[in-house]
Amino acid sequence: MKKFANYIDGKLVPSTSKDYLDNYNPATGEVYSLLPDSCQEDVEEAVAAAKGAFPKWSGLSPEDRSQYLIKIAEAVEQSQAELALAETTDTGKPLWLSNAMDIPRAAANFRFFGHAITQFASESHLVDGVALNYTRRGPLGVVGCISPWNLPLYLFTWKVAPALAAGNTVVAKPSELTPHTASLLSEICIKAGLPPGVLNIVHGAGGKVGQSIVQHHEVKAVSFTGGTATGRKVALTAAETFKRTSLELGGKNPTIIFEDCDFDLAVESAVRSSFTNQGEICLCGSRIYVEEGIYEKFLGEFVKQVDALKVGDPLDGDVKVGALVSQHHQQKVLQYVALAKQEGGHILCGGDRQVVVGRCERGYFVQPTVIADLPNSCRTNQEEIFGPVVTVQSFKGADQAISLGNESSYGLAANIWTSDLKMAHNVSHKLHFGIVWVNTWLLRDLRTPFGGMKNSGLGREGGFESLRFFTEAQNICIKL
Ligand code: NAD
To answer: Does the beta carbon of 90 sit less than 6 angstroms from any atom of ligand 1?
Structure first.
């Protein structure tokens, strides 16, 4: 069986414990590979390697670092087929989606930050005749990057690329549920000639490897994406060493559809925003609010289209919804459907495990599920489910839409559908979400600030925000 390795000081190595964890293909329910069950000693070695590589890497010009990143971007593009298949095998997502979204985006992250670092400038503040202040931004040193399983290589590279571009050296940990593409990235970095120790990848459990990275006194900053409860632990641990943190956490995102919207487009997009990647994207809409005049019409068309989504083998090109990432997660999602019923919800479609015959008969599939008639305050409408489950409610007027949307402890992303531009601005400004999409969903521009409010996180990533996070500002004041 294939065994993945850690990538430390430029070499592929087993964990010091020599122990391994099982890695499942969630579409078949089979263990298909093993990943190192790493421990604190492995993190120590990775941090030492990163520390050793820092002076030389940080001393390179931005143009030279940029060249390495662009080379890695090209290598990711050349390995697209292998990486996409690995991503699908680890996550259960449709192969066409890995090909269309995950892997191109991972390459784009390296390319984007490879270019961004050559355009990164700092401020100066001049008081004529008195003093000139200028801000110098330098890398932090060794930094940690910890990422989740839902968009494995896409989110891993979203952190690693800006950290390296800014001149830091990195100790990174992918999710233990999806180690495959990060493992292939190690091989890509070796082939691309990335100097040893600049990027180190340590596989294993969050409580051991992740915790050791966050605790380590030599790690100056941690960029973390994952669940809110884990984010809280990371913040508490990081506080001990006054570590800088960027926390991209969970969401419970509203999709608000006004009567004056482009109806067909709104329905089609609501299907996409609810069920793309099995609903396992932090930006998926999971609470749909529809203005009362079109509520019944929306329900009819929406449920018809959701019912038509093909669930099944992720390798099948027609499949729109693949397997959930693990049996544990499948059970969690189904428990929420049971809870919704107890809370008085009506299941309009789905609501059960999906049995797929053949190769995937033991896979972790859940039918796309639509639930109506629940109060906004119930647990189903307040807690993150992170699967192919949406609730639908009606509203009357913009004020009610805003208050229903904001009634949440999360604040990651909101989605509005209307043809009234003035209202779109007004509603957007009153919604407490880090990202608001109007008449579109998941349209990303890598230069924009990305992140959540409230329990959805702390800090912003993207463009120069990421480069600012990964650098320390120093003010130099010169008396004129
Ligand atoms: P998770 O919190 O369980 O794990 C995330 C990562 O943290 C994994 O690599 C894990 O091993 C590691 N980890 C676990 N315990 C740790 C600890 N004590 N210290 C340090 N690291 C630790 O999250 P998940 O289940 O992998 O991902 C799903 C969650 O991620 C959802 O809540 C989703 O909304 C969120 N998410 C957020 C964004 C965003 O941009 N805001 C993007 C994707 C996913």
So the answer is: no
Q: Which of 248, 301, 384, 461 is catalytic?
A: 248
pLDDT band of residue 364 (cuts 50, 70, 90) is very high
Q: Which residues pair with 450 in a beta bridge?
A: 461
Q: Is the CB of 247 under 6 A from ligand 1?
A: no
- 3-state class of 9 per DSSP? coil
- Where are the domains positioned within the chain? 2-249+456-479, 253-445
SS3 439: coil
**Dihedral sign computed on CA atoms, order 55, 56, 60, 64:** negative
Token pair 């859940």 is found at 366
User: From the CA of 228, how far away is ligand 1's center (Å)?
Assistant: 8
Q: How does pLDDT run across 121-178, given as a tens digit for each residue?
A: 999 999 999 999 999 999 999 999 999 999 999 999 999 999 999 999 999 999 999 9
C-alpha 116/C-alpha 375 separation (Å) is 46
Q: For ligand 1, say whether the CB of 206 is within 6 Å of any of its atoms.
A: yes
The Å distance, Cα 156 to ligand 1 centre, comes to 11
Is the domain spanning 253-445 CATH 3.40.190.10? The answer is: no
pLDDT tens digit string along 75-103? 999 999 999 999 999 999 999 999 999 99
In short, whether 282's Cβ falls inside 6 Å of ligand 1 is yes
CATH number corresponding to 2-249+456-479: 3.40.605.10
Provide the 3-class DSSP secondary structure of residue 16: coil
301 is catalytic: no
Which tens digits make up the pLDDT trace of 372-402?
A: 999 999 999 999 999 999 999 999 999 999 9
**Ligand 1 centre and the CA of 455: distance in Å?**
13
